[in-house]
Amino acid sequence: MSVRVLVVKTTSMGDVVHTLPAVEDLLRVHPDARIDWLVETPFAAIPLLHPGVNRVICQAWRQWRKALGQRATWQALKEARRQVRATPYDLVIDFQGLVKSACWALQARGHRVGFGIGSSREALASVCYHQQVTVPRAMQAVERYRRLMAAALGRSFDASLPARFGLAVPSECAWQPPARPYAVLMPCASRVEKLWPLPHWLAVARQLREAGLSLVVLWGNPAEEQLARQLASPSGAEVPPLLDVRACASIIAEACLAVGLDTGFTHLAAAYGLPTVGLYCDHDPHLAGLTGSDPARVYSLGGKGRPPDVNDVQVAVALALAQSSSTQRGG
Description:
- With 331 residues, the chain is an alpha/beta fold.
- It has twelve helices and eleven strands.
- The chain folds into two domains: 149 residues, Glycogen Phosphorylase B (Rossmann fold, 3-Layer(aba) Sandwich), CATH 3.40.50.2000; 147 residues, Rossmann fold (3-Layer(aba) Sandwich), CATH 3.40.50.2000.
């Protein structure tokens, strides 16, 4: 009889991407596992891209918490709780480690596993689990999640097994880049502290164009569209219309190289195996740096209060270009 598992990882996009290798580890041990995933609605497209995920249960706590006085909010909460409780699980694994995620895990029927006190992001969450797992908080996110999965399965973590993400490439997209091969640029972020100077982006765009690549600049709201067009206009890059996560995933997966800020789409590019250069301006990458199936193809530069130097970025882009050329030749 196949094991039934509920993955609780609700936000944000990069963190959801980082949980995928743990799901792959589960499927190595239990190829016929039935996996459900509880996630915030805006990020539901990510687990849906994994063929091993059976069902995605959406919740919208970020939206609901702003409207707790409305009847519709409580009806939506009730429906999400009904879906979580509908299936008995062998394992309910909370990869988030927050009180809010632990509360969702408590709604499910099954053996609850999560990070122990000192390992979870919020200590109170740990009391909600039947099994508390100690994993150093200073460990990179992908390895933390894989170690939690190993413990939930009653196994030792095998560091020799590479991280695999198992993402499928969406078969259709409403918009296609007009020219190939192309690189994807992701200069937009949710907070101004994460941004990298536009002149630096223009220098990188020029480098990629001189290497013979077309460019696509992704964006997600009107302010980001303005920035995308400021980059695209002098560099000849394409700016697509507003696309959903699935369509962006299709464009990213078919690119030959990606350069982006510390955002979910940059982590998605690394997960698809692209040579990817990540620019960190407001976080240190040692905990949540880019991770791909081949660590030699990802570059995480900069840190909190230490925006990466444009020359260092161009060196990394040159290395990524060489790797991309080798891949296109079949090397």
